Amino acid sequence: MSKFVELVLDSWDYLLALLFQTACLGCRGVGEKALCANCRRFSLLPTNGTGVEAALDYTEPARSVLRAAKFQKRRELLRYFKPVVCSMDFSYVHSDSAIVPVPLHWTSFWQRGFNQSEILAKWVGEITGRRVVPDGLYRTHRTKPQSLIRSSHRGASLGDCFEWRRGHPVPERVLLVDDVLTSGGTVRACVAALNRAGISQIQVWTLLRASRAKPSKLLS
Ligand SMILES: [Zn+2]
């Protein structure tokens, strides 16, 4: 996001909070921001060396901020995560990796107006200097968000719902970027699609990670 766009979104957020006396998404205290200064102090997860890294636990307040951004279409809230992304250690990412966001189905993109994973991927691209390939991977059919499916049914619906776009240049290595890692079903389905396209060198970065996620089992 450009500095100007960030400033506009920040002012818009401030104006809304001032007009409606909205509560902080984290602590529910009334404030002048959607997330108070205290709740903006996220604590980073340590790196685990598996090639599947995440910035934050999928807990409050990060969980509510991400869900409000996605399901209430409040794109401006994502900016609270930019300092988090900027403070991450991406030294594990190969120097020639292409950064590929997990895509939304075009109907979901149309409804929401943005793909949060693509926004995150662009930030990671800015920070690491690696190229971002937002349109290589696509979703062949629509599925329910994994976070809204009962855990016993997660992963089952994904199967081959991702593909690499035919004729699109195939990078040698990929850093797959998603907003949240829960069961790992989405990541596994994307990795399978990348493998089918001939890409075997894959690493993963997600903004949030549920405690039940098993990063060490995703790329093996
Ligand atoms: Zn707060």
Write structural notes for this entry.
Helix content is 30%, strand content 16%. It has 220 residues and is of the alpha/beta class. The longest helix has 18 residues, at 3-20. It has 6 helices and 6 strands. The structure holds zinc ion. The site of zinc ion has 7 residues, from loops.
Can you lay out the helices and strands and say which pair or pack?
Blueprint: H1 3-20, E1 52-57, H2 62-71, H3 82-86, E2 97-101, H4 106-112, H5 116-128, E3 137-139, E4 162-164, E5 173-181, H6 185-196, E6 201-209
Parallel strand pairs: 1-6, 2-5, 5-6
Antiparallel strand pairs: 3-4
The structure holds zinc ion.
What are the defining features of this structure?
single chain, 220 residues, alpha/beta, Rossmann fold, 2 domains, 30% helix
The average pLDDT is 88
CATH architecture of the largest domain: 3-Layer(aba) Sandwich
Low-pLDDT regions:
none
For the secondary structure, the number of strands is 6
Major sheet, described briefly?
Answer: 4 strands, parallel
CATH class of the largest domain: Alpha Beta
Please report which band the strand proportion falls in: under 5%, 5-15%, 15-25%, 25-35%, 35-45% or over 45%: 15-25%
Query: How many individual helices?
Result: 6
Give the total of domains: 2
End-to-end span in angstroms? 35 Å
Kindly report the CATH topology of the largest domain.
Rossmann fold
Q: Helical residue percent?
A: 25-40%
- Bound chemical compounds: zinc ion
The helix-and-strand class reads alpha/beta
State the strand order across the main sheet. 1-6-5-2
- Element pattern in H and E: HEHHEHHEEEHE
**Can you tell me the overall shape?**
globular
